[in-house]
Amino acid sequence: MLTKEQIQNKNVLLRADLDVPISQEGRVKNDYRLLALLPTIKLCLEHAKKTVIIGHLGRPTGEGSSLSLAPVRDSLNRLLNQSILLLPSGISPGERWKGEPPLVLMENLRFDPREEKLDRGFANELAIGADIYIYEAFATYRDSTSLTLIPEILPTLTGFRFDEEVQTLQKVLNNPLHPTLLLASGTKQNKLEIINKVSQKFDQVLLGGLFAKQEDRTPDGFDLNETTTSRFISSILEAKTIVLNGPVGMYEDGIHGQATKAIFKTIIDSQAYSILGGGDTLAAIPVLGFSYASFSFVSTGGGAMLEFLASGTHPMLETLKNAKLS
Protein backbone atom coordinates (compact mmCIF):
# COMPACT_ATOMS: atom_id res chain seq x y z
CA MET A 1 0.00 0.00 0.00
CA LEU A 2 1.12 3.51 -0.81
CA THR A 3 2.85 5.27 2.12
CA LYS A 4 4.03 8.78 2.83
CA GLU A 5 7.62 7.55 3.17
CA GLN A 6 7.61 6.36 -0.45
CA ILE A 7 6.83 9.83 -1.81
CA GLN A 8 8.43 12.11 0.80
CA ASN A 9 9.93 15.18 -0.91
CA LYS A 10 9.75 13.50 -4.33
CA ASN A 11 8.41 14.66 -7.66
CA VAL A 12 5.37 12.46 -8.28
CA LEU A 13 3.88 11.76 -11.69
CA LEU A 14 0.29 10.67 -10.98
CA ARG A 15 -1.71 8.88 -13.66
CA ALA A 16 -5.32 9.56 -12.69
CA ASP A 17 -8.70 8.44 -13.99
CA LEU A 18 -10.08 11.69 -15.38
CA ASP A 19 -12.45 10.32 -18.02
CA VAL A 20 -15.64 11.81 -16.59
CA PRO A 21 -18.82 13.04 -18.31
CA ILE A 22 -18.80 16.71 -19.30
CA SER A 23 -21.95 18.75 -19.90
CA GLN A 24 -22.51 20.94 -22.94
CA GLU A 25 -21.89 23.91 -20.63
CA GLY A 26 -18.40 22.58 -19.91
CA ARG A 27 -18.90 21.23 -16.39
CA VAL A 28 -18.30 17.80 -14.89
CA LYS A 29 -21.69 16.07 -14.65
CA ASN A 30 -20.61 13.26 -12.34
CA ASP A 31 -17.54 13.53 -10.12
CA TYR A 32 -17.53 10.03 -8.59
CA ARG A 33 -14.23 9.08 -10.28
CA LEU A 34 -12.65 12.34 -9.12
CA LEU A 35 -13.81 11.78 -5.55
CA ALA A 36 -12.19 8.34 -5.68
CA LEU A 37 -8.83 10.00 -6.47
CA LEU A 38 -8.82 12.32 -3.47
CA PRO A 39 -7.07 10.11 -0.88
CA THR A 40 -4.08 9.55 -3.16
CA ILE A 41 -3.93 13.19 -4.28
CA LYS A 42 -4.14 14.42 -0.69
CA LEU A 43 -1.27 12.15 0.38
CA CYS A 44 0.81 13.59 -2.47
CA LEU A 45 -0.09 17.15 -1.50
CA GLU A 46 0.96 16.54 2.09
CA HIS A 47 4.23 14.71 1.48
CA ALA A 48 5.48 14.97 -2.11
CA LYS A 49 7.67 17.82 -3.30
CA LYS A 50 5.45 18.38 -6.34
CA THR A 51 2.78 16.34 -8.12
CA VAL A 52 1.97 16.40 -11.83
CA ILE A 53 -1.35 14.73 -12.70
CA ILE A 54 -1.79 13.18 -16.13
CA GLY A 55 -4.87 11.56 -17.63
CA HIS A 56 -7.19 11.47 -20.61
CA LEU A 57 -10.75 12.49 -21.45
CA GLY A 58 -12.73 10.86 -24.22
CA ARG A 59 -11.31 9.94 -27.60
CA PRO A 60 -10.14 13.15 -29.26
CA THR A 61 -8.95 13.07 -32.85
CA GLY A 62 -6.65 15.99 -32.12
CA GLU A 63 -6.26 18.90 -29.78
CA GLY A 64 -9.56 20.63 -29.10
CA SER A 65 -11.31 22.57 -26.36
CA SER A 66 -14.34 20.25 -26.32
CA LEU A 67 -12.23 17.57 -24.64
CA SER A 68 -9.99 19.82 -22.60
CA LEU A 69 -9.36 18.85 -18.99
CA ALA A 70 -10.24 22.39 -17.87
CA PRO A 71 -13.62 21.27 -16.40
CA VAL A 72 -11.82 18.47 -14.54
CA ARG A 73 -9.32 20.98 -13.18
CA ASP A 74 -12.19 23.18 -12.01
CA SER A 75 -13.86 20.27 -10.20
CA LEU A 76 -10.61 19.20 -8.54
CA ASN A 77 -10.03 22.80 -7.45
CA ARG A 78 -13.38 22.71 -5.69
CA LEU A 79 -13.05 19.23 -4.21
CA LEU A 80 -9.55 19.88 -2.89
CA ASN A 81 -9.98 23.58 -2.12
CA GLN A 82 -6.66 23.85 -3.90
CA SER A 83 -5.41 25.89 -6.85
CA ILE A 84 -4.37 23.58 -9.68
CA LEU A 85 -2.53 24.85 -12.74
CA LEU A 86 -3.58 23.35 -16.08
CA LEU A 87 -0.53 22.93 -18.32
CA PRO A 88 -1.13 23.09 -22.07
CA SER A 89 0.07 20.34 -24.38
CA GLY A 90 3.58 20.73 -25.71
CA ILE A 91 5.05 22.49 -22.68
CA SER A 92 8.72 21.70 -22.06
CA PRO A 93 8.87 18.59 -19.78
CA GLY A 94 11.26 20.19 -17.31
CA GLU A 95 9.00 23.22 -16.85
CA ARG A 96 6.32 21.08 -15.20
CA TRP A 97 8.37 20.73 -12.05
CA LYS A 98 9.38 24.35 -11.58
CA GLY A 99 7.81 26.80 -9.13
CA GLU A 100 4.32 26.80 -7.69
CA PRO A 101 1.68 25.48 -7.22
CA PRO A 102 2.56 22.05 -5.72
CA LEU A 103 -0.14 20.37 -7.81
CA VAL A 104 -0.47 20.74 -11.58
CA LEU A 105 -2.55 19.01 -14.23
CA MET A 106 -1.33 18.32 -17.74
CA GLU A 107 -3.78 18.72 -20.59
CA ASN A 108 -5.52 15.66 -22.07
CA LEU A 109 -2.91 12.98 -22.80
CA ARG A 110 -4.83 11.85 -25.86
CA PHE A 111 -4.37 15.21 -27.52
CA ASP A 112 -1.01 13.66 -28.38
CA PRO A 113 -1.58 10.61 -30.62
CA ARG A 114 1.51 8.97 -29.14
CA GLU A 115 -0.40 8.12 -25.95
CA GLU A 116 -2.27 5.32 -27.71
CA LYS A 117 0.64 4.22 -29.91
CA LEU A 118 2.96 2.80 -27.23
CA ASP A 119 5.53 5.47 -28.07
CA ARG A 120 8.71 5.16 -26.02
CA GLY A 121 9.78 8.69 -26.86
CA PHE A 122 6.53 10.05 -25.45
CA ALA A 123 6.95 7.91 -22.34
CA ASN A 124 10.42 9.37 -21.82
CA GLU A 125 9.05 12.90 -22.22
CA LEU A 126 6.33 12.30 -19.64
CA ALA A 127 8.82 10.80 -17.20
CA ILE A 128 11.36 13.64 -17.34
CA GLY A 129 11.78 15.26 -13.94
CA ALA A 130 9.70 12.70 -12.04
CA ASP A 131 11.10 10.53 -9.25
CA ILE A 132 8.20 8.15 -8.94
CA TYR A 133 5.07 7.14 -10.85
CA ILE A 134 1.74 6.42 -9.15
CA TYR A 135 -0.92 4.66 -11.20
CA GLU A 136 -4.44 5.52 -10.05
CA ALA A 137 -6.51 4.77 -13.15
CA PHE A 138 -8.12 1.36 -12.67
CA ALA A 139 -10.71 2.01 -15.40
CA THR A 140 -7.97 2.39 -18.02
CA TYR A 141 -7.06 -1.14 -19.07
CA ARG A 142 -6.11 -0.92 -22.76
CA ASP A 143 -2.43 -0.77 -23.66
CA SER A 144 -1.18 2.80 -23.86
CA THR A 145 2.04 4.71 -23.33
CA SER A 146 1.12 5.78 -19.80
CA LEU A 147 -0.12 2.32 -18.78
CA THR A 148 2.50 0.15 -20.41
CA LEU A 149 5.73 2.07 -20.91
CA ILE A 150 6.19 4.63 -18.13
CA PRO A 151 6.49 1.84 -15.50
CA GLU A 152 9.54 0.63 -17.43
CA ILE A 153 11.18 4.01 -16.86
CA LEU A 154 10.11 5.10 -13.38
CA PRO A 155 9.67 3.29 -10.06
CA THR A 156 5.93 2.64 -10.05
CA LEU A 157 3.34 2.26 -7.30
CA THR A 158 -0.42 1.90 -7.40
CA GLY A 159 -2.76 4.33 -5.65
CA PHE A 160 -5.22 3.74 -2.83
CA ARG A 161 -8.26 3.40 -5.09
CA PHE A 162 -6.56 1.08 -7.58
CA ASP A 163 -5.61 -1.23 -4.71
CA GLU A 164 -9.14 -1.14 -3.31
CA GLU A 165 -10.62 -2.06 -6.70
CA VAL A 166 -8.25 -5.01 -7.07
CA GLN A 167 -8.81 -6.30 -3.52
CA THR A 168 -12.59 -6.05 -3.84
CA LEU A 169 -12.77 -7.89 -7.16
CA GLN A 170 -10.29 -10.54 -6.02
CA LYS A 171 -12.62 -11.24 -3.11
CA VAL A 172 -15.47 -11.88 -5.53
CA LEU A 173 -13.31 -14.21 -7.60
CA ASN A 174 -11.59 -16.09 -4.80
CA ASN A 175 -13.91 -16.16 -1.82
CA PRO A 176 -17.47 -15.05 -2.64
CA LEU A 177 -20.56 -15.84 -0.67
CA HIS A 178 -22.82 -18.10 -2.74
CA PRO A 179 -25.06 -17.97 -4.63
CA THR A 180 -23.40 -15.36 -6.84
CA LEU A 181 -25.35 -13.31 -9.36
CA LEU A 182 -24.17 -11.24 -12.33
CA LEU A 183 -26.57 -8.62 -13.73
CA ALA A 184 -25.20 -7.23 -16.98
CA SER A 185 -26.63 -4.92 -19.61
CA GLY A 186 -25.47 -3.17 -22.73
CA THR A 187 -25.73 -2.88 -26.48
CA LYS A 188 -22.31 -3.70 -27.95
CA GLN A 189 -21.24 -7.13 -29.17
CA ASN A 190 -17.73 -6.87 -27.71
CA LYS A 191 -19.23 -6.32 -24.25
CA LEU A 192 -21.44 -9.37 -24.65
CA GLU A 193 -18.36 -11.41 -25.51
CA ILE A 194 -16.60 -10.45 -22.28
CA ILE A 195 -19.82 -11.07 -20.32
CA ASN A 196 -19.88 -14.60 -21.74
CA LYS A 197 -16.37 -15.16 -20.37
CA VAL A 198 -17.26 -13.72 -16.96
CA SER A 199 -20.50 -15.69 -16.72
CA GLN A 200 -18.63 -18.95 -16.11
CA LYS A 201 -17.60 -17.60 -12.68
CA PHE A 202 -21.14 -16.88 -11.43
CA ASP A 203 -23.91 -19.15 -10.26
CA GLN A 204 -26.48 -17.15 -12.20
CA VAL A 205 -26.34 -14.51 -14.95
CA LEU A 206 -29.22 -12.23 -15.95
CA LEU A 207 -29.05 -9.91 -18.97
CA GLY A 208 -30.76 -6.55 -19.39
CA GLY A 209 -30.71 -3.76 -21.94
CA LEU A 210 -30.52 -4.90 -25.55
CA PHE A 211 -28.84 -8.10 -24.36
CA ALA A 212 -32.18 -9.23 -22.95
CA LYS A 213 -34.52 -11.19 -25.18
CA GLN A 214 -37.29 -9.17 -26.80
CA GLU A 215 -39.92 -11.17 -24.88
CA ASP A 216 -38.26 -9.95 -21.63
CA ARG A 217 -38.60 -6.28 -22.58
CA THR A 218 -41.38 -3.74 -22.78
CA PRO A 219 -43.16 -3.51 -26.17
CA ASP A 220 -40.92 -0.62 -27.23
CA GLY A 221 -37.83 -2.59 -26.19
CA PHE A 222 -36.34 0.11 -23.95
CA ASP A 223 -36.88 -1.44 -20.50
CA LEU A 224 -37.50 -4.80 -18.85
CA ASN A 225 -41.17 -5.70 -18.56
CA GLU A 226 -42.84 -6.30 -15.19
CA THR A 227 -42.59 -10.11 -15.39
CA THR A 228 -38.87 -10.03 -16.10
CA THR A 229 -38.29 -7.37 -13.44
CA SER A 230 -40.02 -9.61 -10.89
CA ARG A 231 -37.78 -12.50 -11.92
CA PHE A 232 -34.69 -10.31 -11.46
CA ILE A 233 -35.90 -9.22 -8.03
CA SER A 234 -36.45 -12.82 -6.93
CA SER A 235 -32.89 -13.73 -7.99
CA ILE A 236 -31.45 -10.72 -6.18
CA LEU A 237 -33.20 -11.68 -2.96
CA GLU A 238 -31.74 -15.19 -3.17
CA ALA A 239 -28.17 -14.06 -3.95
CA LYS A 240 -25.39 -13.49 -1.43
CA THR A 241 -23.00 -11.76 -3.86
CA ILE A 242 -24.23 -9.46 -6.65
CA VAL A 243 -22.24 -7.79 -9.42
CA LEU A 244 -24.14 -5.33 -11.61
CA ASN A 245 -22.77 -3.73 -14.76
CA GLY A 246 -25.11 -1.36 -16.56
CA PRO A 247 -28.69 -0.13 -16.06
CA VAL A 248 -31.24 -2.57 -17.50
CA GLY A 249 -33.23 0.05 -19.39
CA MET A 250 -32.98 3.48 -21.03
CA TYR A 251 -33.34 5.25 -17.67
CA GLU A 252 -31.89 8.53 -19.00
CA ASP A 253 -35.01 9.40 -20.97
CA GLY A 254 -36.98 9.73 -17.72
CA ILE A 255 -39.46 7.10 -18.89
CA HIS A 256 -37.69 3.74 -18.94
CA GLY A 257 -36.03 3.71 -15.52
CA GLN A 258 -38.60 1.68 -13.60
CA ALA A 259 -36.84 -1.70 -13.82
CA THR A 260 -33.41 -0.27 -13.00
CA LYS A 261 -34.85 1.64 -10.04
CA ALA A 262 -36.59 -1.46 -8.72
CA ILE A 263 -33.40 -3.50 -9.10
CA PHE A 264 -31.26 -0.89 -7.32
CA LYS A 265 -33.75 -0.71 -4.45
CA THR A 266 -33.90 -4.48 -4.10
CA ILE A 267 -30.09 -4.76 -4.03
CA ILE A 268 -29.94 -2.14 -1.27
CA ASP A 269 -32.68 -3.86 0.73
CA SER A 270 -31.11 -7.29 0.32
CA GLN A 271 -28.43 -8.79 2.55
CA ALA A 272 -26.12 -9.43 -0.41
CA TYR A 273 -22.62 -8.06 -0.90
CA SER A 274 -23.03 -5.80 -3.94
CA ILE A 275 -20.57 -4.41 -6.49
CA LEU A 276 -21.80 -2.02 -9.16
CA GLY A 277 -19.75 -0.61 -12.03
CA GLY A 278 -19.79 1.07 -15.43
CA GLY A 279 -20.10 4.65 -16.56
CA ASP A 280 -23.84 4.42 -17.20
CA THR A 281 -24.30 2.81 -13.79
CA LEU A 282 -22.38 5.63 -12.09
CA ALA A 283 -24.70 8.11 -13.79
CA ALA A 284 -27.90 6.18 -13.08
CA ILE A 285 -27.42 5.79 -9.32
CA PRO A 286 -27.90 9.48 -8.37
CA VAL A 287 -30.30 10.21 -11.23
CA LEU A 288 -32.67 7.53 -9.93
CA GLY A 289 -32.44 8.87 -6.40
CA PHE A 290 -29.88 6.55 -4.79
CA SER A 291 -26.58 7.04 -3.00
CA TYR A 292 -23.30 5.33 -3.89
CA ALA A 293 -22.79 4.63 -0.20
CA SER A 294 -25.93 2.45 -0.13
CA PHE A 295 -24.12 -0.29 -2.05
CA SER A 296 -21.23 -2.37 -0.74
CA PHE A 297 -18.84 -1.09 -3.43
CA VAL A 298 -19.16 1.01 -6.57
CA SER A 299 -16.31 0.48 -9.02
CA THR A 300 -14.85 3.31 -11.10
CA GLY A 301 -14.52 0.84 -13.97
CA GLY A 302 -17.04 -0.79 -16.25
CA GLY A 303 -15.16 -2.63 -18.94
CA ALA A 304 -12.14 -2.81 -16.64
CA MET A 305 -14.24 -4.43 -13.93
CA LEU A 306 -15.53 -7.10 -16.31
CA GLU A 307 -12.07 -7.66 -17.78
CA PHE A 308 -10.66 -8.17 -14.28
CA LEU A 309 -13.39 -10.64 -13.38
CA ALA A 310 -12.72 -12.53 -16.62
CA SER A 311 -8.91 -12.62 -16.40
CA GLY A 312 -8.27 -12.27 -12.67
CA THR A 313 -5.84 -9.43 -13.23
CA HIS A 314 -5.30 -5.90 -14.58
CA PRO A 315 -2.71 -4.90 -17.21
CA MET A 316 -0.94 -2.67 -14.68
CA LEU A 317 -0.45 -5.61 -12.34
CA GLU A 318 1.07 -7.60 -15.20
CA THR A 319 3.27 -4.64 -16.15
CA LEU A 320 4.56 -4.36 -12.59
CA LYS A 321 5.08 -8.11 -12.38
CA ASN A 322 7.13 -8.11 -15.58
CA ALA A 323 9.13 -5.08 -14.43
CA LYS A 324 10.11 -6.88 -11.23
CA LEU A 325 11.07 -10.03 -13.12
CA SER A 326 13.27 -8.20 -15.63
Automatic annotation (TrEMBL):
It comes from the Bacteria. Keywords: ATP-binding, Kinase, Nucleotide-binding, Transferase. InterPro entries: Phosphoglycerate_kinase, Phosphoglycerate_kinase_N, Phosphoglycerate_kinase_sf. This is Phosphoglycerate kinase. Belongs to the phosphoglycerate kinase family. It is an enzyme of class 2 (transferase). Pfam families: PGK. The lineage of its organism: Bacteria, Candidatus Collieribacteriota.
